[in-house]
Write a structure and sequence with these properties.
14 strands; seven-stranded mixed β-sheet; globular
Amino acid sequence: MNLKFKKPSKETQMAMSNVARGEDNQDYHSLAEEKLVKITNQSHAKLVNSGNSAILAAMNSIDGAILIPDQGAWNGFKQIAIFLKKDLITVKTDKGLIDLNELNESIISSSNDNVIDLDDENNKSALFLTSFAAYTAEQDLKAIYDFAHENNILVVEDASGAIGDYENRLANGNYSDIIIGSTGSPKIVNVEDGGFITTNDDGFFDKSKLLLKTNKASNITACGIYNELDFAKDNLKKTIESCSYLKEAIEYETSFNVFHKDKRGINVILETEDPKSLSYKLRQEFVLDSHGMITKCPNYNRLKEKAVALEIKNLDIECLNQDNLDEIIKTLKCFDNN
């Protein structure tokens, strides 16, 4: 298999090099931010130097409690909430997917304990989640957003893996109050570092002015984001299509159970009784320019199940061809013990 780790496009690399060498003195921050607000259907955007900086600035601007999924999200949510001394509420999920009944139970319980005030417009709590649970299953953002707003709770979507959604269901400001994301490698907008925040709230950035200034993205990164946004839709579409093909074929041709097999996603997670052994064997097969495409579970960022994740999102879309996908399936069949 000719598998390659995801890198910025050649056009993006050239544009960033021109800025780095001083051959292009254009300030790309406003250009990239203008492009971001169009893509996300929101009205304000800021570029930062990492995804965690985006989470930090967003969470710092929330006055109330922070709700997070019990798995399938990003461990930075919990770490940053603790750092900021926020009240933290963990919501039970269906293997990473937000369950509205469980969300309701968490809200009621937290309200009874006076952790959440459902009537205080100036002290709103916020649910932080990723567009794709564990990168493998699309969250129903519209339903979550409608339910959260009925309870005076904001929705903050980490769209690192979903920016440019061609279905307009994810990374869409109509279904999220705040959208944050990383543009480090390997991401859909793939610039090797950087991040962003978008929102429709005119005053949202006021509470984190110092953080946004301190953690502002470099102009090189801004140039990269500006250029790489043009490829986001195609990158995402190809990755989702490849994962859908793999999920279906693996279920049909092997005995592996695929988690969330009918959901859109950008990786594939296989259930296995021996994640350590299977992940080791697959790492020997899928050598990826010193970077990995295998994640062993249980893992909060993926699923708290005995499983192995195939990180198709880490691959350059040029190598997501039929031959390589079929070779991945063939390799899995070799390690299928049932």
